[in-house]
Amino acid sequence: MVCAWLAAGCAATRPAIDLPRGDGTPYPRHADALAEAVNACRGVRTMEFLLALRGRRGETSLRGRVRGAVARPGSLRLEGLAPFGAPRFVLAAAPEAATLLLPRARQVVRDAHPREMLYALAGLPLAPDDLRAVLTGCVVPEPRSIAGRAYGDDWIAVDLAGGATAFLRPIDGGLTVVAGARGPLTVAYEGHVRGLPRRVRVLVEGAGASAGVDLTADLSQVSINTTLHPEVFAVTVGASFQAVALEELTGGTPLRDPAGPPDPARSTP
Asked: Which helix H or strand E contains 175, and what residues bound it?
């Protein structure tokens, strides 16, 4: 128990994502710089991947292996893998509706918005196309530059239409998106392979036991622009499954780490 709480304390004090601040120097070539940096992620129409997730949401530790697939427009499938047996969860989403299956509990959440599903699972206020953009390094689904500024010789900040910012640095001779900021999210990217990141860290501003998020995803088994049939983004719900409301998952996400510290919000006196 002591080790678990010490581990939680270390996770809670992880360093913030360090981004350049201040006015910088105007950078007139911001559009060309962004086009170079997002060339790879802009070309992603479909992606299959395996995520190794670790982090926290408030005081709840999150951990798991998730097999996933995304496709334009707005299609998403996530399966929470278990050491053996049925998956911990299956999320299948179209642009405006999603189904969350909990095979081990024989429960199903129907017809919620995909953004609400992802928030319930991991505290991420993202729709499927937003998640694709965050995982591939584009920051937003359709990045379009409106202004830019330089910070010394290493950093370029490009302001995007809609209010987000992409931060670029030269890597292996080319400009690469190494971080981004969009609304309450700050994202950092590492381990790029052919222009796409293999490690993504997401911070979500918030307060309280269930609001702030610090989540790191390591991507492997990545396949780009393969043909994904519509059945990939659908689930079959057996007659024995009980329908539950999305609100019933609050504090009880299937990504919760059973080895982590107890969640005070769910403890009983």
From this structure: strand 174-182
